[in-house]
Amino acid sequence: QVQLVESGGGLVQAGGSLRLSCAASRSSISGRPMGWYRQAPGKQRELVATISSGGRTNYADSVKGRFTISRDNLKNTVYLQMNSLKSEDTAVYYCNGSPGEYYSTWGQGTQVTVSS
């Protein structure tokens, strides 16, 4: 069973940048479409971005043009580059398979806090 470990979160001022990483272990994720998700306090988890096994990407309208998802299959890792951060981006960020392709176990997530 794959294990997903997110990292790279932190406290940043509005307009700043962060790069999140999602390292997978125990099994390869290279053939699975992957996604980044986030959950803000009191809100449901939402899909932020997806990337196919071949590198095709899709983004939520709220992050389009600011966030970039990528993957390194040799490193078994998925990334989320976040630029021009806004206070509304504050959330815990998780990675997993894209919708319909979930792994059964979610990681602990990484906290992103954007101060205005």
Describe the model.
The protein is mostly beta strands and 116 residues long. It is 0% helix and 49% strand. The strands form 2 sheets. Strands 2-10-9-4-5-6 form a 6-stranded mixed sheet, with no helix packed on it. It has a 4-stranded antiparallel sheet with strand order 1-3-8-7, with no helix packed on it. A hairpin with a 6-residue loop joins strand 4 and strand 5.
Topology of helices and strands:
Elements: E1 3-7, E2 10-13, E3 18-25, E4 34-39, E5 46-51, E6 57-59, E7 67-72, E8 77-82, E9 91-97, E10 110-115
Q: Which descriptors would you attach to this protein?
A:
116 residues; mainly beta; six-stranded mixed β-sheet; four-stranded antiparallel β-sheet; globular
Using only CA atoms, what is the Rg? 13 Å
Arithmetic mean of pLDDT? 97
Envelope shape:
globular
Distance between the termini: 40 Å
Q: Which stretches of 5+ consecutive residues score pLDDT under 50?
A: none
